[in-house]
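thought: fold this chain, then report.
action: predict
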Amino acid sequence: MSDDEKVEEVKIEEKQDQEKQDEVMASTTTEELLMPQDTLLSAGIHIGTRMKTGDMEQFIYRVRPDGLFVLDVEKTDKRIRAAAKFLARFEPAKIAAAAARLYAVEPAKKFCEITGATPILGRFIPGLLSNPLYPHRIEPDVLIVSDPRADAQAVREASSVGIPVVALCSTDNEFAGVDLVIPTNNKGRRALAVIYWLLARQVLRERGELPKDQDPPLTIDDFEAKVTREEEEET
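observation:
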C-alpha cells in the first residue's frame, strides 16, 4: 500500500469514527433523554447553520465537513427541562408564544392549544406588548420566541417592558434580549415540531397535569407544519 493510500485509509477511518460520534453526540444515554436519541437526530434538532456566534459557541458540539455546525443534543435536552420548569410557574394564559417563521407557526399554535398559552402567530404587530394605547395589547408574564432574529420585534418589546424571553436558538443566533436559551435547529419543519412537542409535554408534566409516563393527546405529526409548495415559494 502506497503512502497516499494509507493517508486516504486513515481519512476514511476518521470519517467513520466521527459519524459514530454523531450518533452518540454526547455521553448521555438514550434512557436519560426526554426522547430516544435516534428520534431527535432523525428530526435534525442538532443541525445548525454554517454561521456560529460567540453566544452559541457553548452549545456547539462540532463542525461537519460541509461547514454546518452541530448542536449538542444533551444540552438541548437539559434546556428543555429547565425551560419547562420555568414556564410551569406561570399562569397558562400569561405565557405567550411568538412565531413569525412559516414552519414555526403550527408548532407554536399547537403548543398553545395544549398548554393554554397565548399564540402570537405570523407578523408581529408593533406595540402589541409595549404600547399601552394599542387596543389589542397583551400583557404576558413570559414570552417564547421561535427565532430571536425572525421574532426580533417581539424580543425588543418584551425586553423593554421587563417580560422574560425564552428563545429557540440555532448556531447563528445572538442572545440580546433573551433570558433563557433552548439550543436547537429553529428552521427545520420536523425539528420545530419535535422541540415544541417536547416542551409542551414537559410543561404539562411539570404542572402535574400529565403523568410522567404519558404523552399529550396531540402527536408530533400534529405539531408539524403542513405547508403547500405555493406557501413555501412565497417565503
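thought: worth noting. Confidence is low (pLDDT under 50) at residues 10-17, 23-30.
final: C-alpha cells above.
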